[in-house]
Write a structure and sequence with these properties.
This protein has helices at 85-99, 107-122, 127-140, 184-192, 198-216, and strands at 5-15, 19-26, 30-36, 56-61, 68-74, 162-166, 170-173, 181-183. The protein has a 5-stranded antiparallel beta sheet. It has a 3-stranded antiparallel beta sheet with strand order 7-6-8. It is built from 5 helices and 8 strands, in the order E-E-E-E-E-H-H-H-E-E-E-H-H. With 236 residues, the protein is of the alpha+beta class. Helix 3 (127-140) runs parallel beside helix 5 (198-216). The protein is elongated, with a radius of gyration of 20 Å.
Amino acid sequence: MEGLQRCFVLHSRPYSETSLILDVFSEDSGRLTLLSKGARRKRSNLKGALQPFTPLFMKWSGKGSMPVLTHAEPISIGLPMRSYILYSAMYVNELLARVLETNTPYPVLFLDYLNVLRELAQAENPEPALRRFELALLQHLGYGIDFLHCAGSGLPVDDSMTYNYREQLGFIASLKMGQLTFTGEQLKAVAARRFETPDQLRAAKRFTRIALKPYLGGKPLKSRELFIPRGRSTGK
């Protein structure tokens, strides 16, 4: 069908007695809000399809802030997000809904999103997949930081040295230790997006929280407030 786009529903909420407002991430159109009329009716063929983590072909019409959904069909079954992994996947959805401008195409980020869902669906530990996605998201948002060179001297970072992060500047060699301090070895792991040790994962998580904070503002993420099963980490 002409005009179909690959999409995922990030979030939905009731509208009137029978409809839904959908927050959608589209491969060609980016993030947008759609009105799905009658989707909550008992006999609606859309009721089971408009779920997060289900790849969809979608089509809509109309201009303005809320076009109307005219067609939706699953491309495949939804990616299974079992127990504690579900919270991590919900975090990814909320992150996109919070930081992406509407009606701005992010076709490569769409593929990164599809990849992180696939990784999470198979993961025992969600953290490496989440860190890679957060770093990819920052890159697509235009966040450009050199992890491999000291911003002060221009020299390559040294594994055993420590570097303090300075916003909009980069990492500068320093003996002072704090929340913004990273070792050269940790920075190399972040740059390569390869996390082979718990220390590297903790450093990557600390950095992405620092870097994403200006995009998220002061409002907390709802997915972080959800119940975290004992003994498990959502990776957020």
